[in-house]
Amino acid sequence: MEFTVKEKAFFERIKKHRVNPMGASTNNPVPDYYGEKIGSVQGYRRWLRDQRAFNRKREGSYPGGI
Protein backbone atom coordinates (compact mmCIF):
# COMPACT_ATOMS: atom_id res chain seq x y z
CA MET A 1 0.00 0.00 0.00
CA GLU A 2 2.71 2.50 0.98
CA PHE A 3 4.71 1.66 -2.16
CA THR A 4 1.77 2.43 -4.45
CA VAL A 5 1.23 5.79 -2.74
CA LYS A 6 4.90 6.72 -3.21
CA GLU A 7 4.87 5.49 -6.80
CA LYS A 8 1.79 7.56 -7.60
CA ALA A 9 3.40 10.66 -6.06
CA PHE A 10 6.55 10.04 -8.10
CA PHE A 11 4.63 9.75 -11.37
CA GLU A 12 2.71 12.94 -10.55
CA ARG A 13 6.07 14.66 -10.11
CA ILE A 14 7.23 13.30 -13.47
CA LYS A 15 4.11 14.68 -15.16
CA LYS A 16 4.61 18.05 -13.51
CA HIS A 17 8.23 18.49 -14.60
CA ARG A 18 8.38 16.94 -18.05
CA VAL A 19 8.78 19.11 -21.11
CA ASN A 20 6.20 20.01 -23.72
CA PRO A 21 6.93 17.74 -26.72
CA MET A 22 5.67 20.39 -29.16
CA GLY A 23 9.12 22.03 -29.01
CA ALA A 24 10.90 18.92 -30.28
CA SER A 25 12.75 18.78 -33.56
CA THR A 26 15.26 16.51 -35.25
CA ASN A 27 18.14 18.51 -33.80
CA ASN A 28 16.49 18.85 -30.37
CA PRO A 29 14.65 15.61 -29.46
CA VAL A 30 12.58 15.29 -26.26
CA PRO A 31 14.72 13.81 -23.46
CA ASP A 32 13.08 10.68 -21.93
CA TYR A 33 9.52 12.07 -21.85
CA TYR A 34 8.08 9.36 -19.60
CA GLY A 35 11.08 9.04 -17.28
CA GLU A 36 11.58 5.38 -18.21
CA LYS A 37 15.35 5.52 -17.72
CA ILE A 38 15.16 6.82 -14.13
CA GLY A 39 16.54 4.17 -11.80
CA SER A 40 17.80 6.14 -8.82
CA VAL A 41 17.67 9.52 -7.13
CA GLN A 42 20.76 10.51 -9.08
CA GLY A 43 19.03 9.44 -12.29
CA TYR A 44 15.98 11.50 -11.36
CA ARG A 45 18.14 14.58 -10.79
CA ARG A 46 19.83 14.06 -14.16
CA TRP A 47 16.37 13.71 -15.77
CA LEU A 48 15.32 17.04 -14.20
CA ARG A 49 18.48 18.74 -15.51
CA ASP A 50 17.82 17.34 -18.97
CA GLN A 51 14.25 18.62 -18.92
CA ARG A 52 15.38 22.11 -17.88
CA ALA A 53 18.12 22.11 -20.52
CA PHE A 54 15.59 21.15 -23.20
CA ASN A 55 13.32 24.03 -22.17
CA ARG A 56 16.20 26.52 -22.15
CA LYS A 57 17.40 25.36 -25.55
CA ARG A 58 13.89 25.53 -26.99
CA GLU A 59 13.38 29.06 -25.66
CA GLY A 60 16.77 30.15 -26.95
CA SER A 61 18.01 31.42 -23.59
CA TYR A 62 21.06 29.25 -23.11
CA PRO A 63 24.68 30.43 -22.97
CA GLY A 64 25.67 28.86 -26.31
CA GLY A 65 22.80 30.58 -28.09
CA ILE A 66 22.69 31.22 -31.81
Shape: elongated
Kindly state the number of beta strands.
0
Q: Tally the structural domains.
A: 1
Question: What class would the helix/strand composition place it in?
Answer: mainly alpha
Average pLDDT, rounded to a whole number, is 86
Sheet with the most strands, sense and barrel status: none
Order of H and E elements? HH
What oligomeric state do the depicted chains represent? single chain
Please estimate the helix content: 40-55%
Instruction: Please indicate the percent range of residues in DSSP E strands (runs of 2 or more).
Output: under 5%
Q: What is the end-to-end distance?
A: 50 Å
Radius of gyration: 14 Å
Which blocks of ≥5 consecutive residues have pLDDT under 50? none
Instruction: Note the total helix count.
Output: 2
Give an overview in words.
- This protein has 66 residues and is mainly alpha-helical.
- It has one domain.
- The protein contains two helices and no strands.
- It is elongated.
- Component of the PAM complex.
- Keywords: Membrane, Mitochondrion, Mitochondrion inner membrane, Protein transport, Transit peptide, Translocation, Transmembrane, Transmembrane helix, Transport.
